[in-house]
Structure formats: structure tokens, C-alpha cells
Write a structure and sequence with these properties.
The complex is a heterodimer.
Chain A: E1 2-11, E2 18-28, E3 33-37, H1 44-52, E4 59-64, E5 67-68, H2 74-84, E6 85-89, H3 100-110, H4 115-128, H5 144-156, E7 162-166, H6 174-191, E8 194-199, H7 202-206, E9 210-215, E10 218-223, H8 225-234
Parallel strand pairs in A: 3-8, 3-9, 6-7, 7-8
Antiparallel strand pairs in A: 1-2, 1-4, 4-5, 9-10
Chain B: H1 3-15, H2 18-56, E1 61-65, E2 87-90, E3 96-99, H3 104-111, E4 116-121, E5 124-131, E6 138-144, E7 153-156, E8 166-170, H4 171-176, H5 182-185, E9 189-195, H6 200-208, H7 216-225, E10 227-238, E11 252-254, H8 256-267, E12 279-283, H9 289-301, E13 305-308, H10 309-352, H11 354-362, H12 367-407, H13 420-437, H14 439-447, H15 450-455
Parallel strand pairs in B: 6-11, 8-10
Antiparallel strand pairs in B: 1-12, 1-13, 2-3, 4-12, 5-6, 5-9, 7-10, 9-10
Helix pairs in contact in B: 1-12, 2-10, 2-12, 2-13, 10-13, 10-14, 12-13, 12-14
Classes of the chains: A alpha/beta, B alpha+beta.
Chain lengths: 242, 457
């Protein structure tokens, strides 16, 4: 569960003071799909950075899976990110001159996963995104949709509890984007991981259980929470993966 | 990330920038090349000196002289006070200088010193000529055989103890004296013409016969007559030595007693009679360094100069060391220059991979590991440069070594000796230097703000 309590984030000082987030409160239950929508500069990316521990809140508290990021040392946050969360970016950020296998391997190496288990995890992840026949291909030779699928494989290889996706379809045409979105939601159901999507695409946002609308660093409204709570009652206990 | 993954990843990122990597490595390779060859030449020269010394000198012996300049050079820029008991010597430039020599009395004194086992004079007799029946006459020098010198024989053998009117004939004289081959010379007799000093009595006799004493022609005639012919049997033929002391290649080695006898004939009635520039003093239990040093000190206390074989060796290897140091210095300068190349390359690498660094940080890679990733990359460049430079040096050195060795007439010694351990240490040091060079760029990478880095398109 992600809890954001009264988080404010400011940059600069004095006259140059810029408030990116102002008294943000938010709660996202485990396994949910949440979309943060807003225009550029609305603070949605900053919110993602603060929640993922890439950035520190100026005030307030972020609690992820019961742990307050504020109390953690840099090293602990690194470990936390390496084992419990992962990222998908608009520009994919995959290493073009490495093979698919090597790209997906990176999080396992960072998390110091034992050598023996690695291959199995990587192949599973590639299979989950339908790239099992591209294992030893260079990432440079993949199409845009395949690159994003590769990035998703890299994001799920560590079986994280939380996936942050920053405009995951922003660089893709709409039909490819639809495939990616479907894949993300399928994985959310299959793996039970929380999906935190930052987007300005209303269509994508509508498909999520939660819609968090932001403007000028503040949350304007959150919709879908009641529906989500109902759903969680009828759902089996968390961790019971299908 | 674990070490192995870091090393692999850093190597992989170098592969993706091959041209840049190889060029940077080549800069290091130049310095490594020079250093590897310098080390090899240093090893070769040291080994050669050690070989020369071990094959000519007994480590239990001390070289003893009376003159303080004997191991150095006499100062010919200042007038020396004349001393009739001193011998004269000529410097390379032709200046005359006087040398205090060791006398029979001195030898007696030295023999009495505790720890002195035996004394061996350094004797060489300049023969008027050496010849054989029906052959031409050749100039020659007879030397006292030293049982510690390594003599490679082509034919015959050296009796132990080596005594009597026997000679070890150097290879060079075999055909000159009309022998078909080395084997044919064994057992044959050769004649030494030992010059005798012109004595005052002879001069008087000549004067009585009416010849002018100052007449150079009659003096020369007198000297010509003043020879003693001695017959020696060739007992062995020695191979041309490659590790002898310079200038002794054609020495006709005869037993020490014989050498002393010829020396006496040659110096009888002159101020040089039984006086020696050097003597070799064998120390009881001289292989033991403490015993050697103690006796050496006792000899020095009596006012003589004494040097051990080891000191001579050190003196020679020091000279080599200085020369090698100069070359090594240039190699080091080349490596220092290449350090800036590494720094530059690493900064470019960090800049090019800003996004990748951002991603790795976002995925939870620790600052320390990011820094290490780039330092390993620098180490790889150092390793590559070190390997390129040293491998080329070893290949080239091995290829030209026989030619150089032949040119320098080193015999079965080698000018270039490559030691794998040294090359490995050199490469390891280069990797260390590269890591230090990569320190600032790797720090920059470690400190990158992931949010900023991921924003870079």
C-alpha cells in the first residue's frame, strides 16, 4: 500500500521558490491500478519521484508497503527500489547495443540475485511479454512496441510489488499502445503488483481503477476509490497469485 | 551488484565504444612497451653481470689492493707526489699515474690476519711472443689459472690440481699456431718467450765492450736477446669465452706457480718485482656473509682496500640500474601523459551514458556500485593498454633478441629477459593508475541525479 500524507515538495529558495507538490494526500491499495493525470507541470512526475524514493519530500510522509521513505537511508532506499519496485519510461531506456537477455538481466544484477536463478527469471519475464524468441537479439533491432515490451520484461523480472510507468504509451502509435496497455493490465492481474501510471492520456486513465487528477501541484480529485474498495472485498487475499 | 557483474558490464560498455577504447589504450601501450623492454633489458644486463662474476670469481674471495684508487680512477688533475716504491700505470687517456702496490711483506701481513685462508696474486705476464716450431710468432699474455673461472673446453682437460708446464690454449691460437683442430693441439708443445729485464750488470758489460749505453739500437738488441724460452704442453683448448673479464679472451692460462715463476723472470731486478696491483684473498668460511665481512674489515683496518665479489656486482648492477632508470623514466612520462587520455575518455563515457546511469540508479543501483562500474571500465582500459604494450614488447623482443645477442657477442646469455611476474605486476600497476585516473569521472557518474539523468533525451 502506498500512503502519501501531506506531502509538499518545493524547489529553490526565496523568490525562486517553486512548489511542485502542495499538501498531497493519497492512498493506493496493493494490487490496484492508479493513473495520475494532469498537464505538463501539474506535478504528476514529481509525485512519482517522491513516491518511488528518487526524490525526497520537503515535508510530509510517504509510506510504501508499511515503510516510511523518510526514515530510510540512501542505501536502504536503493535496496528497496531494487527489490520492491520498478520503472517503465516513455523513452524505453533500454540499452540498444545489448541483447534482450542482457537488458532484462540488469535489475537482477542490481538486486544481487543468485546466478543460478537469473536465467530462469529472465526467460520467464521475456515470455510474459511475448519476446521469448528474441532472447539473444540486440535491442537495437526491435520495433518500438517490442522495445517497450522489453522494458516491461525488465520491470517485472524482479517480481516487484510496485511498477511505475511514466507515459508508457507516449512514444507509440495507438494500436501498439493498446497492446502495451493490455499487457500491463494483464500483468497487474497475473502478478498482483500495483501499477502506478503517470499519463496525460484520458483513455488510458479511464482503464485504471483509480484516477488521480492533478493541477498545479495539488490533487484535484480522485475517482474510482469506492469501486476499488468494493472490488477488494470480493477479491481473494493479496499475495494469492493466480 | 556483485563484482563479477560489474566487471562484465564495464567490459561490455567498452566494447560498444571500441574505437575510443582502443585509441586510449594505445596511449598506455606506448609507455608499457618502453617499460617492458626496459625491465627485460635490465634483467638481461643484471643476469649477464652476475654470470660474468659467478663464472670468474669465487664469492668467498675478496679483491684486495693497496692503492685507494684501485677500484676507482686515479685523479690525474692534481699532481701526485712521487714515491719510488709505487708502480706506474697508464690511464685510458694515456696519462701516467702511480699506483701503490701490494708487496711480499703486505701479503705476509694479510696472510697472518684471522680468517684469511689463502692468497692468490693477480698475475699476468706479457710475453714477448708465443710460437711453435715452424710457425709464426704471436704476441700473447700468460695468466695464472683461477680454478673458479668457468672455462669451456673444446678439447683436452684441466687436471686438478692444475700444475706443471701446461697451458690451456685459447681457441683463437689453434689455427694461428698451425694446428688442424683443437684436438690436434692436445699434447703438443708451444714456446713462450718470456722477456727479461735488462739488468745494470748487462748494461755495464755492454759498455765494457765499447757500445754506447744510450744507443737505442743496441738496447733493442739487448732486449731481443734478453728472453727466456719456456716450453709448455697444451693440455686443453678453451672455447672463446663470452663471460670473461674484458681483455682476457686470449689469456694463456697456466698454473699459478708457473705464472709466478714467469713473472719473476720478467720482473727480476726491476721495481715491479713481486709487486701486485691486486691480490685475491680467500676467506675461511667466506660463503658466510658475516665471516666475509668480518675478515674484510680486518683487512681494511690494516690500510688495504678490500672489496667483495658481491660489492663489485652491486657496483656494476647499480650502473645498469641508473641507465635503465632513465629509460624507465621516459616510459613513465608516456604513461602519465596517457592518464589524461583516460580521464578524458572516461568523462566522455559518463556523458554518453547519462541516461543509463539514471536508469541504473532508478532501479536501485547503489552510488558506490555506479562509481565502481566506471572505475572498472578505466581498469579495463589500463589492462588492455598494458596487454597490448607488453605483448608487442615481448613478441618484438623475442624476435630481435637473437640478433642483438649475437651483435653484442653475449654468447649464450640473453640481452632481453622477460619475466612473466614482472609483466603481470606492470599490467596490474597500469590498471591501478587507470583506476586513479578514472576516479573523478566515476565520482561524477556516482553523483548524478537520477531524475536529471532520466530527463536527458
Amino acid at each position: 500500500m502506498i500512503q502519501v500524507n501531506d506531502v509538499t515538495k518545493t524547489y529553490g529558495k526565496g523568490e525562486n521558490l517553486f512548489t511542485a507538490l502542495y499538501k498531497v494526500n493519497l492512498e493506493i491499495p496493493d494490487g490496484a491500478t492508479a493513473a495520475v493525470i494532469g498537464k505538463s507541470g501539474s506535478g504528476k512526475s514529481t509525485l512519482m519521484h517522491v513516491v518511488s524514493g528518487l526524490d525526497h519530500a520537503t515535508s510530509g510522509e510517504v509510506i510504501v508497503n508499511g515503510k516510511s521513505l523518510h526514515d530510510m537511508k540512501a542505501r536502504e532506499i536503493d535496496k528497496f527500489r531494487a527489490t520492491e519496485m520498478s520503472f517503465i519510461f516513455q523513452a524505453f531506456f533500454i540499452e540498444a547495443n545489448q541483447t534482450c537477455y542482457q537488458n532484462v538481466m540488469l535489475p537482477l544484477e542490481i538486486a544481487r540475485v543468485g546466478r543460478r536463478d537469473r536465467r530462469k527469471h529472465v526467460l520467464e519475464a521475456l515470455q510474459a511479454v511475448g519476446l521469448e524468441d528474441k532472447v539473444d537479439n540486440l535491442a537495437a533491432n526491435l520495433s518500438g512496441g517490442q522495445k517497450q515490451r522489453l522494458a516491461i520484461a525488465r520491470a517485472i523480472v524482479n517480481k516487484p510489488k510496485l511498477i511505475f510507468a511514466d507515459e508508457p504509451t507516449g512514444n507509440l502509435d495507438s494500436s501498439t499502445g493498446d497492446v502495451i496497455i493490455k499487457l500491463l493490465f494483464d500483468l497487474n492481474k497475473k502478478l498482483g503488483c500495483t501499477l502506478f501510471i503517470v499519463t496525460h492520456d484520458p483513455e488510458l486513465a479511464e482503464k485504471c481503477q483509480l484516477q488521480i487528477r492533478m493541477k498545479d501541484g495539488e490533487i484535484q480529485d480522485v475517482s474510482g476509490m469506492s469501486k476499488l474498495k468494493e472490488a477488494s472485498k470480493s477479491r481473494p487475499k493479496k499475495g494469492a497469485r493466480k | 551488484m556483485i563484482l563479477q557483474d560489474l566487471i562484465r558490464r564495464s567490459g561490455r560498455s567498452l566494447k560498444s565504444a571500441k574505437g575510443r577504447t582502443v585509441l586510449t589504450a594505445l596511449a598506455i601501450a606506448v609507455g608499457t612497451f618502453a617499460l617492458t623492454l626496459t625491465l627485460a633489458a635490465s634483467n638481461g644486463a643484471t643476469a649477464f653481470v652476475n654470470k660474468v662474476i659467478s663464472e670468474n670469481f669465487d664469492p668467498a674471495e675478496l679483491i684486495v689492493a693497496a692503492d685507494e684508487n684501485i677500484f676507482g680512477r686515479a685523479d690525474t688533475s692534481k699532481p701526485q707526489e712521487f714515491d719510488p716504491s709505487f708502480g706506474t700505470s697508464t690511464t685510458n687517456a694515456g696519462a701516467t699515474t702511480q699506483v701503490k702496490r701490494i708487496t711480499e711483506d703486505d701479503i705476509a701481513k694479510i696472510k697472518a690476519i684471522e680468517g684469511v685462508e689463502a692468497v692468490r696474486e693477480d698475475i699476468s705476464v706479457n710475453l714477448r711472443y708465443i710460437t711453435r716450431e715452424g710457425q709464426k710468432k704471436y704476441v700473447g699474455t700468460a695468466g695464472a689459472y683461477n680454478p673458479f673461472q668457468k672455462t669451456e673446453l673444446l678439447a683436452g682437460e684441466i687436471a686438478d690440481p692444475f700444475t706443471g708446464a701446461n697451458v690451456i690454449l685459447p681457441e683463437g691460437y689453434v689455427s694461428a699456431l698451425g694446428f688442424e683442430n683443437a684436438e690436434a693441439a692436445i699434447g703438443k708443445k708451444v714456446t713462450f718467450a718470456v722477456p727479461k729485464a735488462v739488468t745494470p750488470a748487462q748494461l755495464q758489460a755492454q759498455a765494457a765492450q765499447g757500445a754506447a749505453v744510450q744507443d737505442p739500437e743496441s738496447l733493442a738488441k739487448l732486449a731481443e736477446e734478453n728472453i727466456v724460452l719456456e716450453e709448455f704442453t697444451v693440455t686443453a683448448v678453451s672455447k672463446k669465452p663470452t663471460t670473461s673479464q674484458p681483455g682476457t679472451e686470449l689469456y694463456l692460462y697456466i698454473p699459478a706457480d708457473e705464472a709466478r715463476r714467469l713473472n719473476d723472470i720478467s720482473n727480476q731486478g726491476t721495481p715491479d718485482f713481486r709487486k701486485y696491483n691486486f691480490i685475491y684473498v680467500r676467506v675461511t668460511d667466506g660463503e658466510n656473509e658475516d665471516a666475509l665481512t668480518a675478515t674484510q674489515q680486518r683487512i681494511k683496518d690494516l690500510g688495504f682496500q678490500a672489496q667483495s665479489v658481491k660489492e663489485t656486482q652491486e657496483f656494476l648492477t647499480n650502473i645498469i640500474g641508473v641507465l635503465q632508470g632513465i629509460v624507465a623514466g621516459f616510459g613513465a612520462i608516456a604513461i602519465i601523459a596517457s592518464v589524461f587520455g583516460i580521464i578524458n575518455t572516461m568523462y566522455i563515457s559518463v556523458l554518453q551514458r547519462t541516461r543509463e546511469i539514471g536508469l541504473m540508479k532508478a532501479l536501485g543501483m547503489r552510488k558506490r556500485d555506479i562509481g565502481r562500474l566506471f572505475r572498472f571500465e578505466a581498469a579495463w582500459i589500463g589492462f588492455l593498454g598494458g596487454m597490448i604494450g607488453s605483448v608487442i614488447a615481448v613478441l618484438l623482443g623475442t624476435a630481435i633478441n637473437p640478433a642483438i645477442t649475437k651483435q653484442l657477442e653475449l654468447g649464450d646469455s640473453s640481452l632481453l629477459i622477460f619475466k612473466p611476474v614482472e609483466v603481470a605486476i606492470l599490467v596490474a600497476l597500469l590498471m591501478l593508475v587507470s583506476i586513479i585516473a578514472g576516479w573523478l569521472p566515476s565520482r561524477k557518474a556516482a553523483k548524478l541525479d537520477p531524475i536529471e539523468a532520466l530527463r536527458t533525451e
